[in-house]
Amino acid sequence: MGTTRLESVPEPKYWHLKTVLSDALDSEFAVGEILPNERELAARFGVARATLRQALEQLELEGRLQRRRGVGTTVAPPRVGVAVGDYAHGGTDASGEDAWQTVESVEAVPPAEVARLLELTPDTPVHRVRRTRMTHGQPLAAELLYVPGDSVPGLAAIDTPSGLARARAVLRELRRLELEGREQTVELGSARADDAKELDRLPGAPVLVVTTRYLAQGRPAAVAVATYRADTCRLTFGDAAGEELLAG
């Protein structure tokens, strides 16, 4: 990796450095290769470590680099296209290369924003189903699905208070609804400690948060909050209403 002095560059130093580093990643490093440590890189490019750190964070945000637990900063593979829609949310616990895996269900009070989307009063408990999405054996996304009791009235007859069996029962009962549509938002965020653990990332790593509100009979039927690794995927969206959401 060559040496470039940046004192006379008019744009922010970290932004120009990001471009220089990006070129080096293309020409000098292989996917998965570990970068030199910050001290070596800062000395090589004649910048402060704070400036270098800004450039590295930007490259991580753009999916060029990955921070791996116990390893360091490595060159990321190209982002894979991830469908967010019927296929993405319709995956079962199959052993395919891209599938949602149901983990558990508990009764819990949803976050205030989720309660608002569900048009519930604060402190109203709902069924919370946790799922993870895997691709090629690696974690890609973690999802929390919030389901009001009114959406799954038949669940009262199922004597399974929590866990995987309860989660599958919630999904099975919710499938009985005729979903009329969905509303989705996507935001850039930072991985919280629990999401980072599930996604095998460091806390604070960039993530894409997809919030989906599903509608049935003119009212909210469920809200899904899916956290995707921003360093490995780009999201694509379909036009269907989401009827396949709840297989599993």
How many angstroms does the end-to-end distance come to? 49 Å
Order of helices and strands: HHHEEEHEHEEHEHEEE
- CATH classification, class level of the largest domain: Alpha Beta
Q: What is the number of E strands?
A: 10
In total, the number of domains comes to 2
Strand count, sense and closure of the main sheet? 6 strands, antiparallel
Global structural class: alpha+beta
Mean pLDDT: 81
Counted by DSSP, the helix tally is 7
Approximate helicity band: 25-40%
What fold name goes in the CATH topology slot of the largest domain? Chorismate lyase
Name given to the CATH architecture of the largest domain: 3-Layer(aba) Sandwich
Assign an overall shape: elongated
Order the strands across the largest sheet as they lie in space. Answer: 4-5-6-9-8-7
Radius of gyration: 21 Å
CATH superfamily placement of the largest domain: Chorismate lyase-like
Q: Spans with pLDDT under 50 lasting ≥5 residues?
A: 86-96, 240-248
Our estimate of the beta-strand percent is 25-35%
